[in-house]
């Protein structure tokens, strides 16, 4: 592993990230909300750290190896989370502790949407914008943009792409060149954001709210510019727009690319993961809506339909927006919604969770083992659509699932050992490792009451979920560091 090459890339990426602090700085100056000095200081520190990291190794020219890619991704997310916390620490409103600031930054960049800030409506406009921008950058922009830019700087990007891109089938590319693939994903992401923002604005949101919520909707983040989240607007039309774009953002972006290139939506339905994604969401939506209506949680069928549909899609895709206090709904429905976040979005989407393709492969592998009990000698391949899945992929999925369950269990026990009640601890770990955001009981509305040790555990859970378990845990193995 080349430390010099890693530092060079990290320095360049931090330097690029420092530029993203300029929009909230300008907004703060324009609105005179008092946060401009915080953003100016954060910009100077970020730029300084980036330049200091880059200057001594600026002449290093070496192609990245796979190990280097893993180190860069993990270092970038951990260092960036710390850097992203600076405005929250330096600002007078909110003036967060280091723990709270890092938690908010990690939550934003990992598109989790868990917040320690209360009275969000009263925050300065620049801080509100910055929180939304963090989620947008974290959703897909940072690494994809880096993969598109770094080759132009003489640095290969394939290792970064394979290390960060979610899903079990990482080597598939939309175009022959990785740079073009990254640009294609970036354009799709940007196009969806613009379409979502315009839709929100036309539906009645202010331009500021439309931009902010478009950022977090397409990133499947969940941060809002209001305490009541999407429920603040009390608009069924806005709810439906959010549902549509959360659903689209939860689909594998390669399907969007194929649909755009061929000018046809037929490719969506030919994809097994997409069909399974629609099936699971449809089941959760149906049960949630019927449950709300039959338990008389809402007096009118229309209210049960809109709120049930919204929350099922929001939590099922791990967006985490709310139109109602779903954690106070009947226990069965609240638990069902939380468990739906374990599946999350499709591979190659901005959603969190285990990913639909992995769950589909686990189901197919389970069914194959049942069939083998009846026909022990039969050769039964695992197929996704018309393609036979390589046994190595199936093994990797099982390995991922085992590590996921083990990691979840360890963090759940660690959080419970700090004195939290079991439901709060369980839902907090579930909401953070799945990059969902809102949990149940004590973390239903926010995480402000969580103690500091718990917040650090959950920060690790958010990073673990965002980097898909393997990418982070591989650095903790002795084999990774052996020559």
First-residue to last-residue Cα separation: 8 Å
Main β-sheet, spatial strand arrangement: 1-2
What does the overall shape look like? globular
- The stretches of 5 or more residues where confidence is low (pLDDT under 50) are 145-159
- Tell me the Rg in angstroms: 22 Å
Strand proportion, as a percent range, falls in under 5%
Described by strand count, sense and barrel closure, the largest sheet is: 2 strands, antiparallel
Percentage of residues in helical conformation: 55-70%
Could you describe the 3D structure shown?
By secondary structure, this protein is mainly α. The protein has 22 helices and two strands. A two-stranded antiparallel ribbon has the order 1-2. A hairpin with a 2-residue loop joins β1 and β2. α4 packs across α6 and α6 packs across α7. The longest helix has 26 residues. The N and C termini lie close together (8 Å). About 3% of the residues have low confidence.
Question: What's the structural blueprint in terms of helices and strands?
Answer:
Blueprint: H1 3-19, H2 22-31, H3 36-54, H4 66-84, H5 86-90, H6 98-109, H7 125-149, H8 158-164, H9 178-202, H10 207-218, H11 236-249, H12 253-262, H13 266-270, H14 272-294, H15 301-316, H16 331-343, H17 356-374, E1 383-384, E2 387-388, H18 391-416, H19 422-433, H20 452-466, H21 470-473, H22 478-481
């Amino acid at each position: 592993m080349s430390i010099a090459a890693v530092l060079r890339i990290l320095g360049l990426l931090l330097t690029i990230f420092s530029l993203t602090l300029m929009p909230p700085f300008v907004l703060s100056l324009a609105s005179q909300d008092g946060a401009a000095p915080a953003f100016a200081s954060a910009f100077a520190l970020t730029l300084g750290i980036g330049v200091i990291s880059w200057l001594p190794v600026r002449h290093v020219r070496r192609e990245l190896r796979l190990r280097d890619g893993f180190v860069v991704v993990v270092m970038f997310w951990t260092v960036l989370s710390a850097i992203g916390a600076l405005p929250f620490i330096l600002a007078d409103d909110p003036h967060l502790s280091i723990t709270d600031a890092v938690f908010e930054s990690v939550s934003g960049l990992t598109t989790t949407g868990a917040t320690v800030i209360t009275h969000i409506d009263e925050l300065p406009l620049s801080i509100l914008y910055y929180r939304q921008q963090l989620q947008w950058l974290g959703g897909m922009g940072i690494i994809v943009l880096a993969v598109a830019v770094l080759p132009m700087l003489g640095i290969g990007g394939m290792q970064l792409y394979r290390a960060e891109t979610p899903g079990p089938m990482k080597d598939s590319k939309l175009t022959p060149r990785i740079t073009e693939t990254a640009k294609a994903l970036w354009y799709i992401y940007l196009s969806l954001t613009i379409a979502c923002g315009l839709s929100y604005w036309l539906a009645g949101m202010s331009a500021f709210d439309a931009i902010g919520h478009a950022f977090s909707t397409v990133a499947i983040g969940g941060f809002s510019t209001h305490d009541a989240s999407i429920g603040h607007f009390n608009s069924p039309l806005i709810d439906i727009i959010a549902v549509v774009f959360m659903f689209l953002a939860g689909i594998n972006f390669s399907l969007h690319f194929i649909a755009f290139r061929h000018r046809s939506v037929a490719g969506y339905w030919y994809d097994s993961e997409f069909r399974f994604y629609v099936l699971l969401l449809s089941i959760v939506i149906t049960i949630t809506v019927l449950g709300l209506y039959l338990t008389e949680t809402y007096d009118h069928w229309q209210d049960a339909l809109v709120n049930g549909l919204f929350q099922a899609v929001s939590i099922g895709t791990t967006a985490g927006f709310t139109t109602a206090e779903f954690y106070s709904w009947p226990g069965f429905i609240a638990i069902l919604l939380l468990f739906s976040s374990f599946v999350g979005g499709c591979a190659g989407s901005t959603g969190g969770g285990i990913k639909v393709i992995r769950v589909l492969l686990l189901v197919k592998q389970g069914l194959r083992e049942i069939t083998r009990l009846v026909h022990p000698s039969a050769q039964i391949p695992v197929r996704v659509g018309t393609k036979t899945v390589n046994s190595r992929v199936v093994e990797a999925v099982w390995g991922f699932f085992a590590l996921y369950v083990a990691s979840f269990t360890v963090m759940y026990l660690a959080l419970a050992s700090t004195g939290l009640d079991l439901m709060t601890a369980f839902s907090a770990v579930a909401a953070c490792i799945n990059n969902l955001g809102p949990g149940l009981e004590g973390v239903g509305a926010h995480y402000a009451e969580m103690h500091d040790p718990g917040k650090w555990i959950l920060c690790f859970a958010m990073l673990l979920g965002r980097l898909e378990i393997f990418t982070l845990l591989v650095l903790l193995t002795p084999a990774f560091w052996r020559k």
